[in-house]
Every structure is written in structure tokens, then in C-alpha cells.
Specification:
The complex is a heterodimer of chains A (about 180) and B (about 280). Chain A is an alpha/beta fold. Helices cover about 25% and strands about 25% of the residues of chain A. Chain A contains six helices and seven strands, in the order E-H-E-H-E-H-E-H-E-H-E-E-H. In chain A, strands 2-3-4-5-7 form a five-stranded mixed beta barrel. Chain A is globular and about 50 Å long. Chain B has about 280 residues and is α/β, with parallel strands linked by helices. In chain B, helix 1 runs parallel beside helix 4 (about 90-105). The chains are: A alpha/beta (about 180), B alpha/beta (about 280). At the A-B interface, helix 5 and helix 6 of A face helix 3 of B.
């Protein structure tokens, strides 16, 4: 049975989530990947405003393919998260609560999730056509010059994810592998 | 001599770009269905079901299987009795890529000036083009849109002859272990052995263009493929890295003679969205 959550999220909601939980996210989330993260952190360093309200936000690591006429968005599966690891602490400090991606995070990110009460969700890598069906609105809100890397505000309905790292220091990838490894 | 108009090459590359990104090969579908029967982890089964459903949606709606529609790698086996007319061969390929990625609504993922001022080239060009002269008057074009996430988990090592079969096996399994959940398992593992520093990487990538389910013609190499795949599937990484016994669907080896002093080994990782299409003109 999936846990349904609405964005924005707060400490109280984050604390309810544990590794292995399947979650369906609804509401607004924001896309950002490599270049957009660099730009966001540069804005923070210069004391400038971010292009969206980051408090309680969930950022989705995705660079979608272009929408065909009549579609909201193209294929939109997660990209590998570790490339965004160096930027996580700066964004969590100002209120980011959740991230959606795929793949392992650094020790620093796992520590940040405990320190700032956050959660890292995994979406199924490569299930990009399936995931796109859960996105009901998409709008570029910053850095359009980055093309697929621009920041988009997405409205999602029941976006299926799994809790990979919770705010208690647990890691589903480590636990899952331990359970199924032979010898 | 047979004249081949380069406009035809452009047309075919355009077709291959769209077809490869949106329609999964039968071999991949069969392989995922087979894994569904042998996967023991319930969450692993759920992920495999999602991947099969994803392939169906992509096919029906003609949208990419994965949003990362890759760096376009083209293998062109050109018959030596072919005479191209109507322009430049490499330009014709790149024109096909640009048209395919634009008209097919595929993601453009290539940036020029990789280190100084990265800027998207806007049409997914240039392609990586490998041309080979072969006998005959046909042109065989194989297109592989190679995703970045799995590419990042690939490794190359200049081993020593003393490392032997065991050394290679350990390096291959270790590469998959380090990659963990990152390259979108279940993966396809391409292994290159021999040649030179550059050629071994070529071999590893060429290996992943093989049709799923086919074994190497040399029975000893074929037995390594089966045995190393088994080792990898004991790692427990599983579909999407959430735990399970389907970490890799296939392992393909390509080999080439080596220098007496060297023993190059390369491992190219391919995600489950293994997109390869071929047309013979």
C-alpha cells in the first residue's frame, strides 16, 4: 500500500517516511539537474533569489525529452543523482526537503538528510514513458537556455517513488543488496 | 560498382534514430519477460513489470523508452564496391541524426566545448561514426543511442598478462558492483579484451550491439559470458538496484589479439533500455 503525500512537505511528513516505503507524490515539484544546480547554488552565493520557493520543495533530477504536440511532456525518467551530491547541502540549508532521482548518494547527502530532516526518493530509472503519464502540467520557469536542463515546474499526480534514504540514516540500496546477495 | 545516394543514408539514419529510441527490440522484451519468471524479489518483479509496461507505452505513443536518447553511435560497414554520390558521407549521417532527433522529439544531449563553455549543439550532433570497409556492395548501418548514466559507470584497465582469466572476471564483476544502482539495472555488460588502449573500449561498446540471447561463436568465450553473468547476478543489486537476482540480463565479450606485453580490458555498461537498430542498404 502506497503512502500518498502532497507537496510542499515538512519535517513531520518526512519523519513518517522509512526506506522501502512506496510513495505517491502529488502537487508541484521542480526539475533540476547538473547545470541548473550549479546555477541555483551560484544564485545563493550571490545572495540572489531563487526562481521558485524552495521551502518544503521536492526537486526531481530529470531532463525530459521534448513534448510532442498535444502532450504535456516527453519521456521523463530520473537521471543519476550522485552528480548533484555536491549541491545538496546548500539547497537543504535553505529549505529543500526532498529529492527524486536514481542511484546511490554520498555519505554527506545521507548525513544532510538527518541534519536537515530530508528524504531521497528513487523513481524507476528508464521507466520514462510510464512516469510521463503522471505529469499533468509542465512549465519552464528558469534557465530556458539550458534546454533539457532548464528548471521546470511540474504538477504531478500520484508519481510513484520508493524511499531510498530516509532521515534516520538508512539506505535501501545497501539493505536490498544485503538481503539478496549470494555468498 | 554500385552507386548509393547519400540522401538515402540520411533518410535511414533519421529512421533508425527514431525507431531505436521508441521501439524496443524483441530480444530485449523476451529477456525482460524471462527475468520476470526467475526474479525472486517481489520489488524486483514489480520493477521488471514497470519496465515492460514502459516499453508498451513508448511503442503505442511513439515516445522515447527513456528520456536520455543518448549520444548517437553509428557503425557503418561499407561494401568496397559501393560508390557514394551526392555529398559527404559523415555529413549525411549527421544530417540524419539532426532530422531524427528534431522530428522525432528526442532529447538533444550533446554539448560542444565540453570543458570551456559547454553549449548544447541543438540537434544531438555530432554522432560518433565508426566506418569499416567490407566485401560486397551493401551498406550496413547500426545505430546505438548510448545513454550517459550507464556510460559513466564504464571502466577500462590495462591489466597484465599474468592477471589471466580470473583477473578479467574479477575486474568485470567489480565494475558492476561499483556501478550498483546507478546505471539502471538490469544492465547489459559489454566486455572488450585485447587490442590497444583505444581499441579495447571500441570492442566493449561493439559488444553491446549484439542481439540479446546470442552467444559468442567461440565456445570457451561463450562459457565465460555465461559464467561471469551468473557471478554478477549473485551480487544482489537487482532491478533498479532495490535488491534481487536480476542485476544483468546479458554479458557479451568481444576479443582481439593483443601485444605480448599488454592485456587491455574494458567494460562498457548498457542500461536496460538497450536501444540498437540495424538497416542494410
Amino acid at each position: 500500500m502506497s503512502i500518498k503525500i502532497e507537496t510542499p512537505i515538512n519535517d513531520q511528513k518526512v519523519k513518517l517516511l522509512k526506506i522501502g516505503d512506496t510513495v505517491e507524490i502529488s502537487g508541484y515539484i521542480y526539475t533540476a539537474r547538473d547545470s541548473a544546480h550549479k546555477n541555483l547554488v551560484d544564485l545563493l552565493k550571490n545572495g540572489e533569489d531563487l526562481p521558485f520557493d524552495i521551502k518544503g520543495s521536492i526537486i526531481y533530477y530529470v531532463g525530459p525529452s521534448p513534448a510532442k504536440p498535444g502532450q504535456v511532456i516527453g519521456a521523463a525518467g530520473p537521471t543519476t543523482s550522485y552528480r548533484m551530491d555536491p549541491y545538496v547541502e546548500d539547497l537543504m540549508k535553505v529549505g529543500m526537503k526532498g529529492m527524486i532521482g536514481k542511484g546511490s548518494r554520498s555519505e554527506n547527502v545521507i548525513n544532510c538528510l538527518q541534519k536537515y530532516t530530508g528524504v531521497y526518493f528513487g523513481a524507476t530509472g528508464g521507466a520514462a514513458a510510464l512516469i510521463s503519464k503522471k505529469i499533468i502540467e509542465a512549465e519552464v520557469i528558469a534557465f530556458p537556455e539550458l534546454g533539457p536542463e532548464a528548471i521546470r515546474r511540474l504538477k504531478v499526480k500520484d508519481l510513484p517513488v520508493v524511499v531510498i534514504n530516509d532521515c534516520y540514516g538508512n539506505d535501501l540500496y545497501v539493505e536490498g543488496k544485503k538481503k539478496w546477495a549470494k555468498e | 560498382m554500385r552507386d548509393v545516394n547519400l540522401e538515402l543514408i540520411t533518410e535511414v539514419v533519421k529512421y533508425l534514430s527514431i525507431e531505436a529510441s521508441t521501439i524496443a527490440n524483441d530480444g530485449l522484451v523476451k529477456s525482460l519477460q524471462k527475468a520476470l519468471k526467475t526474479e525472486a524479489s517481489p520489488v524486483g518483479v514489480e520493477i521488471l513489470e514497470q519496465l515492460l509496461e514502459n516499453i508498451e507505452i513508448a511503442k503505442t505513443e511513439k515516445i522515447p523508452i527513456c528520456q536520455d536518447t543518448g549520444f548517437t553511435v553509428v557503425y557503418a560497414d561499407i561494401g568496397q564496391d559501393v560508390h557514394f554520390v551526392g555529398g559527404d558521407f559523415n555529413e549525411a549521417i549527421n544530417k540524419g541524426v539532426a532530422q531524427g532527433y528534431t522530428d522525432g522529439f528526442l532529447r538533444k544531449s550533446i554539448v560542444a566545448n565540453p570543458i570551456t563553455e559547454p553549449q548544447n549543439t541543438g540537434d544531438n550532433t555530432p554522432a560518433i561514426i565508426h566506418t569499416h570497409l567490407v566485401q560486397g556492395d551493401k551498406v550496413k548501418l547500426t545505430l546505438l543511442p548510448k545513454g550517459g548514466g550507464s556510460e559513466n559507470m564504464s571502466r577500462l584497465k590495462m591489466m597484465t598478462p599474468a592477471d589471466g582469466v580470473e583477473g578479467v572476471k574479477n575486474f568485470v564483476v567489480e565494475t558492476v558492483k561499483i556501478a550498483g544502482p546507478n546505471p539502471c539495472p538490469p544492465i547489459i555488460v559489454g566486455v572488450g579484451i585485447g587490442g590497444t588502449f583505444d581499441y579495447v573500449a571500441y570492442l566493449a561498446k561493439k559488444a553491446i550491439t549484439r542481439e540479446l540471447g546470442q552467444r559468442h561463436p567461440n565456445p570457451t568465450i561463450a562459457s565465460f559470458e555465461t559464467e561471469w553473468l551468473k557471478e554478477i547476478n549473485k551480487l544482489g543489486i537487482g532491478p533498479a538496484g532495490l535488491g534481487g537476482n536480476t542485476t544483468a540480463l546479458e554479458l557479451f565479450i568481444e576479443e582481439f589479439p593483443r601485444h605480448i606485453a599488454t592485456f587491455p580490458v574494458a567494460v562498457n555498461i548498457q542500461c536496460h533500455a538497450a536501444r540498437v537498430k540495424t538497416v542494410i542498404i
